[in-house]
Every structure is written in structure tokens, then in C-alpha cells.
């Protein structure tokens, strides 16, 4: 029995390994003669294997710690899996290498200028990408990603900050956030924040993260904000789940647009199946198209009441669920 279990474990491990990053190219290392740093700097770029399938501009996801195999492997796998199941759109992954990681991420201005003025122009020149960039970071990298989102929100329109260290430079990130949030219409896009609760590294950062969260939530924001308390995860393991959750949140609107398009096509083929109308109503509700959503739920109820193949019990349960959605 133990031998069979071992064989199955090896099979599944090898199968998962073979599938790793199967929908993305291996990261390609590029060199940039940086005037800002005065050295040759490296970045990595990974693109979907079916990059040419869609002609519209792609999303660009920039992450720091690109020379950290664990960080780059985790975000590449998360992006690959989410893209496989149509949870996120086609995206180009750009990893930033460091020469002096902690100094660059804490000092932040030079690295910001390098990414904004030297890396992204090179990416835009070579690939077709959207103007709004998603910036991703962990620990000091999350501190830096937060800074980028606040400093130039038109460019860095999505931010994923996992287990951020918000204490550098005398806690300057709180002051920066309060200043930028005074202009309520300035910041747009999506901000995802997460922290673990295990071991000292993340435990020691929690107060700072909750202070930043309070600043965000005490202001009326024109951007979407989500916080996840990753109970049971420590500082080094939070990216394992945090990157995927963050990407899923940042591209949630895109996914619901995709669901809406899919259900419209299904309704054309099956115009009397009420479940497709319910899913269409869900998509419209998440996209904040409230009036259209309610109208679609009304059609759902009409179709459901005409369904002769559903039991009376299931019909009552479904009607109750749909009416609850209409009141939200």
C-alpha cells in the first residue's frame, strides 16, 4: 500500500512539474544600460505562449525581487494558473533584478525612476501593453509597490502588497498615503493588501499594516481596496497564496466582463435556460450595472417558473436566492 501511495505521489508531482508555467514562456533575461543607476541592470520578461492570439494591448505585471527564484516562480505559477482558467487576461510579466535589494526598495526613488523611465519604455517599445501597470511586491517590495501606487497612480493603477514592511524612513508611507488620499478623485484602480499571523516576521509587521489599512478605509476612495488576513501563513509563505488572491482581485472586473460575454453567447444557444440568465445577472451586479442586473433577474424568475424539469423544492431555493440578489 505504501509503495502504491509513493508511486502516485511521484506521478502527481511530476505531472504538476510538467504543467508548471505551461501557458507562459520561460523568463527571458534582458539587460538595460541604466543612466539612473549608472550600471547594466537586468530584468526578466515572460509572455503568454498564445501572445499573438489576441491583438489588443496586454496587461503588464511588474514585480520586484525578480532575481529571487521563489518569488518569481510563485508569481509566474499563479499567473499561469489564473490565465489557464480565464480568471485574468493576457498579461506580460516583468521581473526587476536588484544589486542592493534592501537599499533600493527602501530608498525607492531611484528604483521608481528606473522602472518608470527605463524599464517600461523598453517593454512598451517591444510589446503591446496597456498604459496601466500592475505593481507587485513582498515585504520591502510591498512597501515599494505601495509607494509606486501612491506616487503615480495613473501609471501604477493596480497594487498587490503582500506582508509589507511599512516602517522604513520613519514610517513615511503613512504620511504619503494621507496626503494622496486627501484628493479623493485622484486615486483609481485596485489595491490588494495581505499579511500573515505566524512567526515573528509577520507578527511584528501587523500593527503597521493595520494602521495603513485604517488610513485607507477612513477615506472615501475611488479605487477598490481589499484586505486579507492570511491566518496560518508566515512571512515567507504569504506570497504562495497572496499573489494569486491579489491578481484575482485586481482583475475581478475583467473576469466578470468575460462571464457576461460568455453568458450572452450561451443565452443565444439556450434562450430558455434560466441559469444562464442568473449568471448574467450576477455579472451585471458585480459590474455595478444595477438596473440591468435587476431586469435580468426578473427574466431569470420567469424562465425558472416555466422550467418543468426542476423540483418544487429546488425551485423555491433558487427563487429565494435570486430575490436576495435583487435586494442587494
TrEMBL record:
InterPro entries: AB_hydrolase_fold, Esterase-like, Mycobacterial_A85_antigen. It holds the Pfam family Esterase. Keywords: Hydrolase. Transmembrane segments: none annotated. Gene3D superfamilies: alpha/beta hydrolase. SUPFAM superfamilies: alpha/beta-Hydrolases. It comes from the Bacteria. This is Alpha/beta hydrolase-fold protein.
Amino acid at each position: 500500500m505504501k509503495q502504491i501511495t509513493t508511486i502516485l505521489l511521484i506521478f502527481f508531482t511530476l505531472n504538476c512539474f510538467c504543467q508548471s508555467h505551461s501557458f507562459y514562456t520561460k523568463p527571458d533575461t534582458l539587460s538595460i544600460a541604466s543612466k539612473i543607476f549608472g550600471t547594466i541592470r537586468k530584468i526578466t520578461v515572460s509572455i503568454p505562449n498564445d501572445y499573438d492570439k489576441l491583438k489588443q494591448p496586454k496587461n503588464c505585471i511588474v514585480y520586484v525581487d525578480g532575481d529571487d527564484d521563489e518569488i518569481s516562480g510563485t508569481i509566474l505559477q499563479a499567473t499561469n494558473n489564473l490565465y489557464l482558467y480565464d480568471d485574468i487576461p493576457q498579461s506580460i510579466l516583468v521581473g526587476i533584478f536588484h544589486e542592493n535589494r534592501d537599499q533600493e526598495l527602501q530608498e525607492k526613488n531611484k528604483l521608481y525612476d528606473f522602472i518608470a523611465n527605463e524599464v517600461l519604455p523598453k517593454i512598451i517599445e517591444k510589446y503591446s501593453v496597456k498604459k496601466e501597470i500592475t505593481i507587485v511586491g513582498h515585504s520591502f517590495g510591498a512597501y515599494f509597490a505601495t509607494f509606486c501606487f501612491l506616487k503615480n497612480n495613473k501609471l501604477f493603477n493596480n497594487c498587490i502588497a503582500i506582508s509589507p514592511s511599512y516602517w522604513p524612513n520613519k514610517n513615511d508611507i503613512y504620511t504619503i498615503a494621507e496626503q494622496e488620499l486627501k484628493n479623493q478623485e485622484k486615486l483609481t484602480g485596485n489595491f490588494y493588501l495581505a499579511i500573515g499571523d505566524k512567526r515573528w516576521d509577520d507578527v511584528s509587521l501587523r500593527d503597521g499594516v493595520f494602521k495603513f489599512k485604517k488610513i485607507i478605509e477612513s477615506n472615501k476612495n475611488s479605487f477598490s481596496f481589499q484586505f486579507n488576513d492570511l491566518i496560518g501563513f508566515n512571512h515567507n509563505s504569504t506570497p504562495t497564496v497572496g499573489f494569486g488572491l491579489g491578481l484575482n482581485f485586481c482583475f475581478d472586473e475583467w473576469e466578470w466582463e468575460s462571464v457576461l460575454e460568455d453568458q450572452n453567447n450561451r443565452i443565444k444557444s439556450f434562450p430558455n435556460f434560466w441559469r444562464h440568465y442568473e449568471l448574467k445577472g450576477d455579472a451585471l451586479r458585480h459590474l455595478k450595472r444595477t438596473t440591468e442586473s435587476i431586469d435580468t433577474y426578473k427574466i431569470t424568475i420567469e424562465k425558472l417558473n416555466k422550467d418543468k424539469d426542476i423540483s418544487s423544492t429546488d425551485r423555491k431555493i433558487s427563487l429565494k436566492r435570486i430575490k436576495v440578489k435583487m435586494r442587494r
